[in-house]
Amino acid sequence: MIRETLLTDWNLMRILRLGLGIYVSVQAVETQSTISMIFAVFLLFQAISNTGCCGSNGCAIPIKKNNSNKTEEIEYEEVK
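RESULT FIELD:
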């Protein structure tokens, strides 16, 4: 389950959070800033867990569901 969450559904915002989190963490180590490190950990957590600011997948992109097992009957109407 955890491996599936880490390896799937990578989008632009998730990649951006990961890159920004890595960049801010490197800068926080260089400047020895605690506040920057807390912000970096927050961004990295969001990227790894695929969550947004709203918590528990509130801002995450919904997972696409495959409904290939169901066939839908289409009704046609003749127009004259």
